[in-house]
UniProtKB/TrEMBL annotation, chain A:
Pfam family, one: OppC_N
GO biological process: transmembrane transport
Family classification: Belongs to the binding-protein-dependent transport system permease family.
UniProt keyword annotation of Transmembrane helix present: yes
Name of protein: ABC transporter permease subunit
Keywords on record: Membrane, Transmembrane, Transmembrane helix, Transport
Source taxon at top rank: Bacteria
UniProt topology in membrane: Multi-pass membrane protein
UniProtKB/TrEMBL annotation, chain B:
UniProt keyword annotations, A-Z: ATP-binding, Nucleotide-binding, Transport
Protein name: ATP-binding cassette domain-containing protein
Gene Ontology biological process terms, A to Z: peptide transport; transmembrane transport
Source organism superkingdom: Bacteria
Family the entry assigns: Belongs to the ABC transporter superfamily.
Membrane disposition: Peripheral membrane protein
TrEMBL record, chain C:
UniProt-listed CDD domains: ABC_NikE_OppD_transporters
Taxonomy of the source species: Bacteria, Pseudomonadati, Pseudomonadota, Alphaproteobacteria, Rhodobacterales
Subcellular location: Cell inner membrane
Main location: membrane
GO molecular function, one term: ATP hydrolysis activity
ABC transporter domain mapped to chain residues: 4-261
Protein name: ATP-binding cassette domain-containing protein
Pfam families: ABC_tran, oligo_HPY
Native species: Oceanomicrobium pacificus
Superkingdom of this protein's organism: Bacteria
Single GO biological process annotation from the record: peptide transport
Membrane topology: Peripheral membrane protein
Family, as annotated: Belongs to the ABC transporter superfamily.
Keyword terms: ATP-binding, Cell membrane, Membrane, Nucleotide-binding, Transport
Cellular component terms per the entry's GO annotation: plasma membrane
């Protein structure tokens, strides 16, 4: 009784048999595999869409923002947001409208308060003419995505600041600094970090030693005070554009170290892989191995690291600007806008002044999710 | 015979992490000398840490030996590989190619098969792009892969197919010598045989010489002409395949043969197996490296390292054992 | 007496691309004190079969879809397929009645505890021995598996052990509760050939001494020939042939078994190897009928349907249409 034999021919497959996915792992190219991996991460895809939207809004800031960044009315100082409405007591309309705000003295406290003027409907029109601006610094235009036709009443989706300027418009313009600081800063970081890291990992020896010790030295200092010290060194009389560039350089200068270390580690591990050895055994030169084997295999990792470094840089700029040592007016950045909400009183009375923080929050989160998605994607064989 | 030799290795020594004078560090390869004839297969067998892979990599000059000569003879004349710069080596590298153990790791996963196979041609700038393409396709077909493989990626192939790609890639530049580093140990048994047969056929067709690094004596028995048994970087025995398997001269060779799992006819026979394990290469050397595990070891073995010399009973075999002439290891021993 | 009886086992893996039939209608038995070798190439389901028995399938991915695994435990016969893999019954079975050792002893041992402490833990999980008694037993076990100076070695950490000694320590741990069945999953694949011989000899000795059954999973037919009584040959999740260890070499029945033997280089073999054509299909390209049909030189029309298992005689059965007549003659 050691053997058992099932004499029933071909037992029917049990119910759990699900149809196999059409796409076969083995039939897809590397690129297709990566794309599939990325699409499978819903959060990353959503984040990518959000970021595309944010950057588009930044490029066409003049068009998206209904008003110029400095266009304010002092009577609207700290006036609340004007919500978009389709219906009010007088009935409904297909064209959205806002009730303009007016200042009234409260019968109770005798303080000046803003209330919505329910009597007046200001309709919102799309592709309206308004303040003139330049697209990418080239074409002058005065077309806006939306706006009111009235000269007097104003639309403010996210409220007004102290000088009665539309906060939404200012946030859109502020993105031009906040969002680009991340990208440009990271670009500099990648160039510094990838080149130094790759060389340090590939050649090793005294150069590697020197670079690693230098990086350690830089990393010993706490980040924020070092940023502060460096940006405080930017001459106060520089034009705002120069200050902006200075801030980017300061952030990049302190940020490349992490990337350099990562690239060095990658180079070290790739260098020992059989396929690099195979190329070497075939007589490939160092340049060839770098170009054909090391860089293509590292590129995706560098992209991931860079993506995750963007939010750090954005937060760095925000922190500096918030502390008043980053970009200076008339330039606008989200950090600078937040510094208007510096006082507890302001937050208590005019909570909408915190909206720039929401934009920072969403951007940083989106970059992090995107980075996670890319990380899954760069290793499509797992 | 001498003219036919394409590779002559003498006193090859490699220490990992040696200081500038070539001392200290881990002694991975210890005074190894051997020759390789045209169209011959020399297998290097040994357990992990025996230095068998390291010798292969020294010949491909992936590692820099600390001492010794590696003389390579080809139509272009005779060169000593150990004293050549990277630039001088480049033309020689066309003639010495490598085949790696894990076809998964030795093929860059981001390159298409066509580019992978063509890479040696591209590196050495041989032929026009059209000629290269023709060469790649004809080699892929020769190793049993269709021309459509060119546009595929390594992950789209099975392990055996990947190893065929590795072979095609090594052959694009028409090498004379192929260093095969455990080329079938990562493959399934049924596929392993395909690759072994392919290697044998290619050798006959192209007049290749093989250095075949392996731990599997069954595979070695099948493919080799001569066999070198290595223990802790030192040659124990160097003999023709027939002699080695029929009448091993060294107790370690005997132990390896006995250890091979194989069908036992007298079932459940009590066997005594070699005790202990291969020691780390850091241990201070005195005497025979195998003495600690050898059932025949004497004081002499502990004291003095034996030199590799022709065996009295069969001068074609070289053996490094003080007692080789006295021991009879030809029959399988039930007890050591 | 039958110790383990697996009947119609189906194990499914739910992966991104769909459901894999990792083990597809597998039946076999293991008698008390018997050594059964399970042989097959990668993807044949041999390890998944072992994991199904042990209740060690990856959670949320692997699932026993059908079949029964009847095991004669000390407390009576149980169907392991019906037990909660994480429940107390399975935990008890795993520690007490069935032991398992793995291919990679390094990853199976925890590097932050001494070898002794890990064996003591295994002992105390299933017995109420005092710490001192358990430690003494651990030393005994280490000595039994051939580790010199067990008292000193027990206090060492895994990294101080060589590969072969780690595998011995794993065996000691698996033996701590006197299992009736030891499942060894490729126990010698990661070690050198001389050490492999030592481990196989040790397993055989222990098995004899304790009347323990041994289920040895391996890709190497030679290992099976070395120590097994019976052999189960698997291909793509199915058992293609069940026979004795002697017959698998002398009189293999299934074309796959024959192919494996013809492509196996072994000592003294100089004639040209005859490989099996093609490669093992990927898990998603499973043929509809006999899994081996696309690579089989003797395949016919009939092979488009899955063959049943034909019994040749008391010891040998084979799942191949070639033996349809034999079956008819036998019946």
């Amino acid at each position: 009784m050691t053997d058992t034999v099932s004499n029933t021919p071909a037992t029917a497959a049990p119910a759990a048999e699900a149809p196999l996915a059409e796409h076969n792992y083995q039939l897809l190219s590397v690129r297709q595999l990566m794309w599939r991996k990325f699409l499978a991460n819903r959060l990353a895809v959503l984040s990518a869409l959000v970021l595309i939207l944010l950057y588009l809004a930044t490029i066409f800031a003049g068009f998206v923002a209904p008003y110029g960044p400095q266009n304010g009315k002092s009577r609207l100082s700290y006036a609340p947001p004007t919500p978009i409405q389709f219906c009010d007591d007088a009935g409904c309309s297909l064209r959205p409208f806002v009730h303009p705000v007016k200042a009234e003295r409260s019968p109770v406290t005798f303080l000046l308060e803003f209330v919505a003027d329910e009597e007046v409907r200001e309709y919102i029109y799309f592709f309206e003419r308004g303040d003139s601006y330049k697209v990418l610094g080239l074409v002058t235009s005065d077309l806006h995505l939306f706006g009111l036709r009235s000269d007097d009443a104003r639309i403010a989706l996210l409220g007004h600041d102290q000088r009665g300027r539309d906060l939404f418009s200012r946030i859109v313009y502020g993105g031009q600094v906040s969002l680009t600081v991340g990208l440009i800063g990271v670009l500099i970081m990648v160039m510094l970090g990838a080149v130094i890291g790759a060389l340090s990992g590939y050649y090793g020896g005294w150069f590697d030693n020197f670079v690693q010790r230098f990086i350690e030295t830089l990393r010993v200092f706490p980040e924020i005070p070092l940023w502060m010290a460096l940006s405080a060194a930017i001459p106060p009389l520089w034009p705002p554009e120069w200050v902006y560039a200075g801030i980017v350089v300061v952030l990049a200068f302190l940020g490349w170290t992490g990337l350099a270390r990562e690239v060095r580690g990658l180079t070290l591990s790739l260098k020992k892989r059989d396929f690099v050895m195979a190329a070497e055994a075939s007589g490939a030169s160092t340049g060839w191995i770098m170009r054909k084997h090391l860089i293509p295999n590292m590129l995706s990792h560098i992209i991931v690291t860079a993506t995750l470094a963007v939010p750090v840089t954005i937060l760095g700029e925000s922190a500096l600007s918030f502390l008043g040592i980053g970009v200076r007016p008339p330039m606008i950045s989200w950090g600078l806008l937040l510094s208007d909400a510096f006082k507890v009183q302001v937050i208590a009375l005019y909570p909408w002044m915190l909206f720039p923080a929401a934009f920072i929050f969403i951007t940083v989160l989106a970059f992090n999710f995107l980075g996670d998605g890319l990380r899954d994607m760069v290793d499509p064989f797992s | 015979m001498r003219d036919e030799q394409i590779l002559d290795v003498t006193d090859l020594t490699l220490r990992f992490g040696a200081d500038k004078s070539g001392q200290g560090g881990l002694l991975a390869v210890n005074n190894v000398s051997f020759g390789l004839n045209r169209q011959e297969t020399l297998s290097i067998v040994g357990e992990s840490g025996s230095g068998k892979t390291t010798i292969g990599r020294c010949i491909a000059r992936l590692y820099e030996p600390n001492a010794g000569q590696i003389t390579f003879r080809s139509e272009g004349g005779e060169v000593d590989l150990t004293h050549m710069s990277k630039a001088e080596l480049r033309p020689i590298r066309q003639q010495i190619q490598m085949l790696f153990q894990d076809p998964n790791a030795s093929l860059n996963s981001r390159m298409r098969i066509g580019d992978l196979v063509a890479e040696p041609l591209n590196i050495h700038r041989i032929g026009t792009p059209a000629e290269r393409r023709d060469r790649v396709v004809s080699l892929l077909e020769r190793v049993g892969l269709g021309a459509d493989t060119v546009n595929r990626y390594p992950h789209q192939l099975s392990g055996g197919q990947r190893q065929r790609v590795g072979i095609a890639r090594a052959l694009t530049v028409s090498p004379r010598l192929l260093i095969c580093d455990e080329p079938v140990s990562a493959l399934d048994v049924s596929v392993q045989a395909q690759v072994l047969n392919l290697l044998r056929d290619l050798q006959d067709e192209m007049g290749l010489s093989y250095i075949f690094v392996s731990h599997d004596l069954g595979v070695v028995d099948y493919i080799s002409d001569r066999v070198m048994v290595l223990y802790l970087g030192t040659i124990m025995e160097l003999a023709t395949r027939d002699d080695l398997f029929a009448a091993p001269a060294h107790p370690y060779t005997r132990a390896l043969l006995d250890a091979m799992p194989s069908r036992r006819d007298g079932r459940h026979r009590k066997r005594k197996v070699l005790t202990g394990e291969i020691a780390g290469p850091t241990l201070k050397r005195q005497g025979c490296v195998f003495a600690g595990r050898c059932p025949h070891a004497t004081d002499l073995c502990q004291r003095e390292a034996p030199v590799l010399r022709p065996w009295a009973r069969n001068p074609a075999t070289s053996v490094a054992c003080h007692h080789a002439d006295a021991l009879d290891l030809s029959t399988e021993e039930t007890t050591i | 007496m039958t110790l383990l009886s697996v009947q119609g086992l189906h194990t499914h893996y739910h992966v991104e691309q769909g459901t894999l039939r990792a083990v597809d209608d597998v039946s076999f038995e293991i008698a008390e004190g018997e050594t059964v070798g399970v042989v097959g190439e990668s993807g044949c389901g041999k390890s998944v079969t072992a994991r199904s028995i042990m209740g060690l399938l990856p959670r949320r991915i692997g699932e026993i879809a059908a079949g029964e695994i009847r095991f004669a435990a000390r407390g009576g016969t149980l169907d392991l397929a019906q037990q909660d893999p994480l429940g107390p019954v399975m935990r008890d079975i795993r520690g007490n009645d069935i032991g398992m050792i793995f291919q990679e002893p390094m990853t199976s041992l925890n590097p932050v505890y001494t070898i002794g402490a890990q064996i003591v833990e295994a002992i105390r999980l299933h017995s109420d021995l005092s710490k001192a008694d358990a430690w003494a037993k651990a030393e005994q076990l280490l000595e039994r598996v051939g580790i010199n100076e067990p008292a000193r070695r027990a206090k060492q950490y895994p990294h101080a052990f060589s590969g072969g000694m780690r595998q011995r320590a794993m065996i000691a741990m698996a033996l701590s509760s006197d299992p009736r069945l030891l499942i060894a999953d490729e126990p010698t694949t990661a070690v050198d050939v001389t050490v492999e011989a030592q481990i196989l000899a040790l397993l055989e000795e222990l098995k004899r001494e304790r009347n323990m059954a041994l289920m040895l999973i391996t890709h190497d037919l030679n290992v099976v020939g070395e120590i097994a009584d019976r052999v189960i040959v698997m291909y793509l999740g199915r058992v293609v042939e069940t026979t004795t260890a002697a017959r698998v070499f002398d009189d293999p029945k299934h074309p796959y078994t024959r192919g494996l033997l013809a492509s196996l280089p072994s000592l003294g073999r100089r004639t040209r190897l005859t490989p099996i054509e093609g490669t093992v299909p990927g898990p998603h390209q499973r043929p509809a009928g006999c899994p081996f049909a696309p690579r089989c030189a003797q395949a016919t029309e009939k092979c488009n349907t899955q063959p049943p298992t034909f019994r040749i005689d008391a010891e040998t059965s084979v799942a191949c249409w070639l033996y349809d007549d034999a079956e008819a003659g036998h019946a």
